[in-house]
What we know:
This protein has about 375 residues and is α/β, with parallel strands linked by helices. It has a single domain (about 25-365), classed as Alkaline Phosphatase, subunit A (3-Layer(aba) Sandwich). It contains 15 helices and 13 strands. The strands form three sheets. Strands 5-4-6-1-7-9-2-10 form an eight-stranded mixed sheet, sandwiched between helices. A three-stranded mixed sheet has the order 8-3-11, with no helix packed on it. The protein has a two-stranded antiparallel ribbon with strand order 12-13. α5 packs across α6 (about 80-90), α12 runs parallel beside α14 (about 245-265) and α13 runs antiparallel to α14 (about 245-265). It is globular, with a radius of gyration of 20 Å. It starts with a helix and ends in a 5-residue tail after the last strand. Zinc ion binds near residues 34, 110, 236, 240 and 295.
Amino acid sequence: xxxxxxxxxxxxxxxxxxxxxxxxxxxxxxxxxxxxxxxxxxxxxxxxxxxxxxxxxxxxxxxxxxxxxxxxxxxxxxxxxxxxxxxxxxxxxxxxxxxxxxxxxxxxxxxxxxxxxxxxxxxxxxxxxxxxxxxxxxxxxxxxxxxxxxxxxxxxxxxxxxxxxxxxxxxxxxxxxxxxxxxxxxxxxxxxxxxxxxxxxxxxxxxxxxxxxxxxxxxxxxxxxxxxxxxxxxxxxxxxxxxxxxxxxxxxxxxxxxxxxxxxxxxxxxxxxxxxxxxxxxxxxxxxxxxxxxxxxxxxxxxxxxxxxxxxxxxxxxxxxxxxxxxxxxxxxxxxxxxxxxxxxxxxxxxxxxxxxxxxxxxxxxxxx
Length: 369
Ligand SMILES: [Zn+2]
């Protein structure tokens, strides 16, 4: 019934509900901060990897990430996305085909971006990255209040502002963020990661992504959360440092971590074939060889993003080449629909993301629906 209401509300034609509504029981939302659609869809930029201002070792970076063919080049940088998601899932945001993903919020910086992703609301009042508790209800806390997900929702992030974005105090969602210690058990799990964290003298606002990831993976193994948010942050850090070579390295690392996580999920009976990954970024960056390192309200390209989805209900359409506009504020209703839930809040929320099947005049994410 919940599902039917959502369909009506979102203007989607009502379809027969003979078969099970969806196979998705678990959702992992994964972000890599400020990673551009340009690199996702076209790989390394020739001007930036050959500019010694941005790339320390141009020959090595070329050897690692350059190929004259766009298809091979992007696969070199993001092999999991182009070998697996492009075959088994969906990739939105290649503007060369007029397939656009944008942030709806005006500010094009991180806190407003994550607020939009997690609450479905591009709130004008959320305008800075200051550590202020978010007034908006997010999808994680909404699901955590439903009996089916209670105590089974968790967030891990590299950036230390997430406890405010998710409003850990109000929402009751455990958020392990920045260089916060991880819970150790009697078997010594996480002990080593904590020792590494303690040993880092120059702690910045963003923890090394690998530490965040390993903490999340251990939690997944031991606790089996149903809903997980994983926020990686180093792509943005390297870009702000104007280090294009390191930005590519971090993107490549993010691809490997996501690949590793997908492998773990698909080989764990609890998660296998019932878990959907929603992967995106919180903002774009400048779209030329000078502005690429930054992003804000005034820098062209900062609102341009991308979206990848893989899971049992996602039609394996691969790279979406339809002329289409998607916004980050549509993700929460998409997640709710995948789970057969309804995200009820007092603020407006974008409609679910769907692939328009040309000629069929219906929006669908699942087979046989
Ligand atoms: Zn940034």
